[in-house]
Amino acid sequence: MTNHHIIKCNGLKVVLILFILGFVLTGGAAATEQQNQDADASKSCLWSIQTGVHTISLLGSFHLLKSDVYPLAAAIDEAYSSSQKVIFEADVNAMQTPTVLQKIQRLGLFPEGQTLNQQISADTYTKLKTKMSELGLPMQQFALYKPWLIALTLELSELLRLGYDPSYGIDMHFLNRAKQDAKELDYLESIEYQFDLLGNMNQMDQESLLRHTLEDLDDIENMATDMIAYWKSGDAENLYQLLNKNFDKHPRIRDSLLIQRNRAWAARIEALLKENQNVLVIVGAGHLVGPDSVVDLLKKKGYRVKQK
User: Fold this and answer.
1) Is pLDDT of 159 > 70?
2) Fewer CB within 10 Å of terminal CB in the chain, N or C?
């Protein structure tokens, strides 16, 4: 793997989560001014479960943001300050380890003798070449990339171009604070597991992911703007509609990347309710809104989950 490839891959943890949230699979629709006004400004993308004198807080995260999202809502800072433990989806710093980079290479590049144009349809390949030309990217550098890796690389490139920065992401913000404050840290998954989910998708799903990415890149700025607006105002319904708009067309992807993981996380959070401390759990916002979300699953189990 060349240094160019490694540089491209270093940011993919961020895009993995954005994919799960829906930047890749949504079909973008600009938020109207009225929709933003209708959202309850007193809410945030934060939920809590009270267990006697202790609280489990669930914070929806975006992993690339701009500096203008700060300062955060008071309820979010209060949830962090009162928590003895902070739990994240995965350790984002693990992206820099040789083990993870080797996994990306193994799962994201075709073996010797295979190339992208042999593995996807002529129509998809033509659309990709056209988009690469528009973006000023050399097609040859991506000849060995598998479709899922190209989709995420393109997504990341566009978000970075628009000014979205992982250093302003909610998880990175609180990870740095938690380390500085010597809070107890834990993680729901490993980075390796998350890349396994994408890298082991079948060829049909990978090509579908790539095609939707190519279609959505033209509207990614509107999609990103809308998602952040809904997130800041705690507009869970509109956020769900935007993030999950096209997942119905991809039931296998939805099941593996959302539903199965939501169920595992809900069980983990249920176990936290027995711990004698306040805990803040930070996961992608798409995992906390709508049917079969972590919040929905906990409510179905009889827990009173309150949006803050």
Assistant:
1) yes
2) N
